[in-house]
Amino acid sequence: MSMTCGEATMRLLARYGVTTVFGIPGVHTLDLCRGLSGGANAGAIRHVQTRNEQGAGFMAEGWARATGEVGVAVVISGPGVTNAATAVGQCYADSLPMLLVSAEPEARTIGKGWGVLHEITEQKRATEPLCAFSATARRAADVPDLMARAFSIFASQRPRPCHISLPIDVQAEMVEEIWEPVALPARPAPAPAQIAEAARMLRAATCPVIMIGGGAAGAAGDLTAIADTLGAVVIASTAGKGIVADDHPLSLSASTVRPEVQAFLPEADVILAVGTELSETDSFIERMELRGRIIRVDIDPAKISDLYPATLGIVADAGSAMAALRVALAEVPGRDRDGVARVAGLRARIAANLSGSERRHAKLLALLDRIAPEGTVWAGDACQLVYTGAFAMPVRKPRHWFYPAGFCALGNALPNGIGAKLARPDAPVAVLAGDGGFMFTMPELVTAAEARLALPIVIWENGGLKQIQDDMDLRDIARVGVEGINPDFVALAQACHCHGTYADSAAAFTEAFQGAFETDRPTVIVVRENDAWLS
User: How far is C-alpha 419 from the geometric centre of its chain's CA atoms?
Assistant: First the structure.
């Protein structure tokens, strides 16, 4: 059966399990669109029309965060790629499986600098630093090989974005054969001797600590059991939040940003770090003081000996490694430890040392925890409410807290929430955004309304870019560029076919938030930081 390369590409994506792509059609993606709206692939893949390619990338990111599956954005050449690049960079920083499929001008023009439409002289070089790989298909026959490479990375390596670029003449080539997906490789398994050594080290520890990142999302049950067996304090990265439930008596949630926890870390004599970079963007200090021996379990070999070199490095998938370690620990005699008491003391010190703004955040977060449906997925932006939520908002399952700490882009929360809700339509999803960050991707309200998503969107209005205001004040720098006016968010929501309200009391907020899950469109709920009910 004959079809264009664009059609065949979409058909192949469907065979790899892709059901939805995000993007904006353009003159350079028409043959790809042919594979979405008609021809041999009719109805196989849903296309979600976004209002900017940055929104498309962020929605693909939200899909990946919510499911662990590949999120896909399909964009035009040139500005489509550069608009999506911020989301690609964020997926790279936070180790998320995203595929960017883009158009490119005709293959014969690449590298020539002739000034053709949407030209980037060599487009793949624009995304290479942000991807596991970026490549251009010079002929239709290249596409199956490039797709196999991308999906093999997603399946078996550290999941980072890939970019496949299809020149318009390549998209239009006729394809006679049916492209089939390849058998995907498995993730690496741990060496039994290393697991036995890790069990011995942990059992001998007097103050073991487990540090968990997003790479451990598939090991939640085993990690919780390991913590219980060891009596070990558990600290998550922002991506690892909820893998061990935040309200577990051994969990300090994502709290390495807190000075109380930073002061505690030198007491740990053995640290089990699983699927985490131990990144600066979780602690926001140059280097944590980790004096104990470190066991690092990571699928990425480069993580074993970077800023925090491992005493014992295990290159393996966290799921299989933690399953094996759980069994091994059951066979090694242990000792009594006071992890629960340590955590209780640290939680109390954190609560006592909150700033005035953090106390207001905590009050709203506690209310949200009480009134939100069980299993709510929280799509957060880089804003002060979410910074506090990293350690103060209880999350009890993996992949239920989105906070872009790695790249720390603004504007991801709303499109992340849209992507998550489309990926998991039966799950409650809520958005937490600052007033400044919300404006980056505000037009995606229309996308959410068009999809008829029951999506509560909480905007924390604190007068602009409050974190930078505070930083400028702290360093005695006159404020510049951080106090711009805001729109009337309620009127803006209504103009975008959404509901909107200002919450001037806990009761009003509760009514609006709970009601937002029962309606046929998004609901924007504005909370002003200085309102009396948050005091």
Answer: 11
Q: 534: buried, middle or exposed (CB in 10 Å: 19+, 13-18, 0-12)?
A: buried
- Please state, in angstroms and as integers, the Cα–Cα distance from residue 331 to each residue in 195, 272, 317, 324, 352, following that order: 12, 18, 22, 11, 40
DSSP 24-73: ---GGGHHHHHHHHSGGGTTTSEEEE-SSHHHHHHHHHHHHHHHSSPEEE
Whether 336 has a pLDDT exceeding 70, the answer reads no
Convert the pLDDT of each residue in 470-490 to its tens digit: 889 989 999 999 888 999 999
By DSSP bridging, strand 3-4 and strand 46-49 are: unpaired
Q: What is the rounded CA–CA span in Å between residue 120 and residue 510?
A: 49
Measured CA angle at 44 (ends 41, 48), to 5 deg: 110
**How far apart are the C-alpha atoms of 502 and 497, rounded to whole Å?**
17
Q: Which 8-state DSSP code applies to residue 531?
A: -
For CA atoms 287, 288, 293, 298, the dihedral sign is: negative
Residue 39 has pLDDT above 60, yes or no: no
- Supply φ then ψ for residue 489, to 5 degrees: -65, -30
As a whole number of angstroms, the distance between CA 25 and CA 47 comes to 10
User: Where are the strands (E) in 203-348, listed by range?
Assistant: 208-212, 233-236, 270-274, 293-298, 312-315
Report the distance separating Cα 380 and Cα 405, nearest Å. 10
pLDDT of res. 37:
63
Instruction: Mark 73-86 as b/e (b = at least 16 C-beta within 10 Å).
Output: bbbbbbebbbbbbb
Backbone angles phi, psi at 233, to 5 degrees: -70, 135
Q: Is the pTM of this model over 0.85?
A: yes
Tokens 């992507």 correspond to what residue?
419
Of 456, 447, 465, the closest CA to residue 514 belongs to: 456
Return the H-helix or E-strand segment holding 200: helix 192-204
Q: How far apart are CA 342 and CA 252, in angstroms?
A: 10
Instruction: Identify the sign of the CA torsion 143, 149, 152, 154.
Output: negative
Place of tokens 């600066």: 280
Cα dihedral sign for 128, 130, 133, 136?
negative
Q: In this structure, are residues 80 and 53 in contact, taking their beta carbons and an 8 Å threshold?
A: yes
